[in-house]
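Example 3.2
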Amino acid sequence: MDFFSEIWQTISKNRSRSLLTAFGVFWGMLMLIVLIGLGNALSGGIYSQISGFAMNSCTMGAAQTGKPYKGFQRGRQWEIQLSDLDVVRQRVDDIEGLSPMVFTGSKTISRGEYHGDYDLVGVTPDYTKVLVSPLLYGRFINEIDMRERRKVCVLGIEAYRKLFPLGGNPIGERIFCGSIQFTIVGVRKQNENSIYIGGDPDKMVQAPVTTIQKAYNLGETVHILMAVAKPNVPVSEIEKGIKDVLKERHQIAPDDDKALWGFNAEEEMKALGYLTMGLTALIWLIGLGTLISGAIGVTNIMLVTVRERTKEIGIRRAIGASPWVIMRQIVAESLVLTAMAGLAGIMAGVGVVLLTGKILEHSDTFLKAPNVSFGVAVSCLVIIIIIGILAGLLPAIRALNIKPIEALSEE
C-alpha cells in the first residue's frame, strides 16, 4: 500500500503536468483503436461486396488472335462453341463448374400493359456456382430446362418490379421477350455484390443457353465462359488447361496471349488481400507512431521528476536502498501513468467505434459496422505495458547514476 500510495502522490503532486503528459498516450491509443475499427469497417465492406462471387473462379472470352498460326493470319476472329465445353470437361481435371453465357442484347420484356428493356441472357445451372443467385421466388434453371430447351426464365429483381408493380408470386406467369413467350420459374433477390460478369443480374432476364441459341439462331456461339475450380485447387491451373484446349481446337498458337481475354478472381482476391494488409500495416504504423510520441513525453516528464527528486533519491541510497528499489519505483511510476492513460484511450476508442457503428447502421454506405476484436484490445494493453516500462527505463538509469554524496549536497 505504501508503494502504490507513493506512486500516486508523485503523479498527483503536479496534476497539470501529469494530465498533459498522459494525454499524449491517451490520444495515441484512442487514434489506434478508432483507426483499427474503421479499417475493419472498410475491409468488411469491401469483402461484403464480393461475398456472393466465387473467388476460385475464372472468366474468359474470345478475342482477335495476336499471332499467325497454321496458315491463319493474326487478327482472326473466332468464337467459343458450346461443344467445346464437353471437351474441356473431359480433358481438364478439377473443374467444379463450367457455365457459358450467351447474350442477345437488350429486349423489350412485356407483360400486358407493363414493359421494360432488359438484357436477355442464356446461362446454365452452373452459373450459380460462380455467382450465388439467392431467389425471392421459385427456382433457377436446371438440367431438364437445358435438355428440353424449355422457354423458361428467371427474372432479375428490377425486371420483376417493373412487370409486377403490385408484387406477388409470379411463378408460372408468362411474359414476352421480344416476340418469344417465356414462362417465369424464378425471381432473383437483390444483388448485393459489386462484382458480376456480363452485366448486372438485377437488370437481366436469364434463360437456358440452349433455348437462347435455338430461338435466336446463334448456333453454338458462347460469348463468355466461366469456370470454378474444385476446393484447394489453384484457379490458374484450370484456367491454363481450358485455354490450352480452346486454342488447340480453334487452331490458335499456344503462346498467343491475346486470343483470349480473361479474369482470374483468385488473383484479384490476392491483390485485394495485399491491399487490406497494407492498410492494416499503415493503421498500426500511424497508431504506434502516435503512441511512441506520447511515450517520449512520459520519458521527458519522468526525467524532470528524477531531477526534482535528486536529493530524495540520494537520501534513499544513503540509508541503504538498493538500485533495484530505485529502478522499480521510477519504472512503476511511468507504467502506472502510461497504463491509466492507455486504458482510458482504449475505452474511449471502443466508445467511438460503437457510436460510429450505430451511425453507419442508418446510412447508405457500403462500410460495415466498425469493430475491434478482443484480441486486438489485449494486444493494445500489452503494447501499453511495454511502452510504460520502456518510457521509465531511461529516467531510472538516470536515477541510478546519482551518487548519494552529490545528491545530498544538491540545493
